[in-house]
Amino acid sequence: MEHAIRVEAGDVDVEARSQGEAGDLLARFLEGSPGLASSLEAYLEAADFVDILVRLPGDKARVVARSLTPRTLAWVMELADRQTLDLLVSSLEVSRLLEALKELDPDEAVDVLQKLDSGTRRKLLLLLPPEYRRQAGALLEYPPDTAGGVMTVSVPVLREWDTVGRALHLARSWNYDVKDTVVVVDGGGRLVGLAEVSDLLSRPLSTPLREAARRPRITVGPLEDQETVARLMLRYYLRRLPVVDGDSRFLGLVTIEDVAYILAEEAAEDIAKLAGSEVSVERYVPSRVVELVRARLPWLLVIYLIESITANVLKSYEHVLSRVAVLAAFIPLIMGTGGNVGSQAVGLIIRALALGEVSERSRDDALLILRKELTVSLAIAAVFSLVGLAFALAVSGSLMVGIAVSLTLFIIIHLADLAGALLPLAARRLGIDPASVSTPLITTVVDVSVAFIYMTIASMLLL
User: Fold this and answer.
1) Is 146 within the bounds of a domain?
2) Which residues constitute the domain of residue 69?
3) d(CA 196, CA 37)
4) How far apart are CA 433 and CA 269, in angstroms?
5) Do 253 and 183 contact (CB within 8 A), yes or no?
6) Cα separation of 58 and 74, whole Å?
7) Which helix (H) or strand (E) holds 72?
8) Within a domain: residue 150?
9) For the segment 327-385, what is each residue's pLDDT rounded down to a tens digit?
């Protein structure tokens, strides 16, 4: 959504209609006076400074980074892509980096450390305070795309025999990331339940927490995939999801705020794959040309090689095309229709998988999809067959050409729809990201099928 941004700081007066435009205008201003960045901290968020840094030349970006306070620098480091973070690390003394990391909670600091090279990560970890280093080191054991990698440990944790009064005192006196929930554990650190602060306020202060805590309906292990965690929380309307180890010992909480980040990250990755890009780049503006080429070239080469099959199929039917040249005019039309049908089916099923509406492991779900898509494709194919027959007849003046186009459309729409609906299920079952069954791949497979089916039908009807 487009929105107005206005920044006023001394002689700075910038108004822009979008995030990108604001970043560009502010970057141009600071390029001339990079030392003034500190005067803008009261008016800008960390995300705004990231947008500025990625647009500035390296030497100017370094000056801006050095002028930021540790608190702002900490949030900029957490939001920055790897390339921008590398620039920050190379621009700042280790002491400044440590000051910034200490401004973050351990789980947030880990998000920064995971993006650094191993040497810099080890150096910073060794210089952190012992307790902070212990917590951060424990979190670094988990891959970043798992429940353990995204969970927060900045949450009040008390024993089951502690009282409501102690819980409320702790919630008031410490600055936790999670302020509305108290985690209750037993003497061995095993999860007893969660207590909402709003519920504790209505209870006598002497009430033991074991009486106020509610056993969570669902818990997850630290190695559970973050996308699975997000789906569980959305499906069951959970604001807080406990992460526990194999002995039910409490490790951390995944919050609904974490889910928002996970979904944005997964959506970016899926969109890149659906568009036929092998990987998604974190930010387009600072990305190097070589990174963009590396992300896009592999799929393009694969698709080109598959499309070459289409050329060979058409060449083998050269005798048909030479006798009835008008047949060639309808090939792009049929290929485009089949590709569009397959792309629609892919999008619908991937969305259903992402939301947990269907499961790749359920035979009933697969049969439901098969029945539903057969019915849908039958209706679409019937309409397109009639339209294709009328159009081909009007253009070519040949009934046989019209029938060839109509029959091909009928067959290819069924094939494209079923392929688009079932391939994501098969991919997920094989442990492959269903978004990898991308629109370009479906379109390419459809193109090869069209060439073979269309030419076969045409040769049978016209020769």
Assistant:
1) no
2) 5-141
3) 41
4) 10
5) yes
6) 19
7) helix 70-79
8) no
9) 888 988 898 898 889 888 888 888 788 767 788 888 888 899 999 999 999 999 999 99
